[in-house]
Amino acid sequence: MTERNEQTTTLNTLIATLIDSINGYEDAAANSEGGKFQEVFRSRASERQQVVEDLRAEVRRLGGNPEDDGSFMGKTHQRFLDLKATITGRDDQAIINEVERGEDYLKEKFETALNSHELTGDSRAVVEKAYQSVRAGHDQMSQLKHSLDASA
């Protein structure tokens, strides 16, 4: 039973972090200048929502209650970004820099979970599949950031 509890806890932590990611992408889409990157952000948010649903299904399969809210740190970070945006303004470069920073954090969370011994069997397979989405999003935002840096 302890193994299931540990897996459920790990899965719920990943779910909360993914919800933060979804919220971040939706915020980025809403604040992107002239809509240049809105579709990219919305597409990532939608993909992340599906990943969350997959992880929630695994938590339910294990007999747990899936997380339905983001993390406290994610909410705190969002409030900080809102304040920062009010003071300094937002442009696509700043938005992509923040999104990429969030992707670094998310990727690290998934790598930590996969490198731990808490996930086994089906739970590990679900997280490995989810990690593919996380890695693709990370790589895409990193490429966007570096292409904007190069053209600046």
Automatic annotation (TrEMBL):
It comes from the Bacteria. Residues 8-115 form the DUF2383 domain. InterPro entries: CHP02284, DUF2383, Ferritin-like, UCP029477. This is PA2169 family four-helix-bundle protein.
